[in-house]
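Title: Prediction job returns without error message
Component: structure pipeline
Severity: low
Priority: P3
Assignee: unassigned

Description:
Job completed but the reporter wants confirmation the result is attached to the right record. Sequence as submitted:
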Amino acid sequence: MKAVILRCTPGGMFHFGRYAPDSDTALNETSDIIHSDTLFSGLVNIYADQYGNAEDFVSCFENESVSISSAFFCLQQGSTYVWFLPKPLSFNLAEVNDTKSFKKIRFISSGLWNAISSPQDIVGRNDVLVLQNSFALLNTEVTSIDEETRRRFRIYNPQNLPKVQVRKPTQEGSLYQLSVIEIADTSQLIADMQAHYYFLMNETVEHRMKNRLKVVIELLGSQGIGGERSTIGQFEGIEFQDNWAVPQGDSDSSCALSLCVPKDNEVPMCEYYDTLFRGGRRLGDRGAYLKSVRMMREGSVVKTSVRGRICDIKAPNYSGAPYLRYGKVFTIPMKRSWTV
């Protein structure tokens, strides 16, 4: 398994669209992570621009010779990384004293993932550090942090930017809000620390496609991803780390690190999940809308046999190229004590 680090500049801004049935409010909200279907669309578009046709590239995802997770946050200090993973949804059923604070935690580090034997350990151990109310890690994974630093520490900040549609002939209706994720300057509180995005990837493709895949991923840095890529969504660079250490697990259940659209016969094997809608946006000024699809969120718990599928959400009676949503599930093992 490889980790692909999407290096971010402190203060860098990103907008990752969320489902909005009203196109006028589509830019008002943003996801804080990069969902796997957004990554997939970005990679396919770059591949088509570079090589003229992306059918062979899409086939690699269909047959799972290439698979990707969503992109989550990581912290870098020198050559050391803290990798944050989505908290499995089964954890929210655990009996803990401080339920409110426990449920606010959305991400746990890979080090903490390996260290805990039960969900309660996250709030029951003295060596667990919680940052920004949402990120839990072992205090040994970073430089010693005092209480004041912990209280002030941020990995990202949500921002709302006022914007004007310059092409509108009148001022009426030309103002709108663009919601963005701003990468915090973590080095202001902890020396040499930086926050980035990263995603995980498995690939077993032949040499030619392997080279093309590397080129396409590297171009994410310059071409960016998400909305308004001319000013928002640029990465400082791309870094690959081979042999990413997969967390330990002994269960026949796995935690999803991507969005997933299970096949009909796989639905009974999905144990704990939350869903969201994707797609549904308007196709330019043509009046047609993409279909929407319900997808299971990252952190869902599924049996290891669940694979998911790629959906075509193009508008009915639309004769153009397909609009694909990546719903293949990318999982890592879980411990049996986390699901009982």
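Comment from assignee: result matches the submitted record. The longest strand covers residues 193-203.
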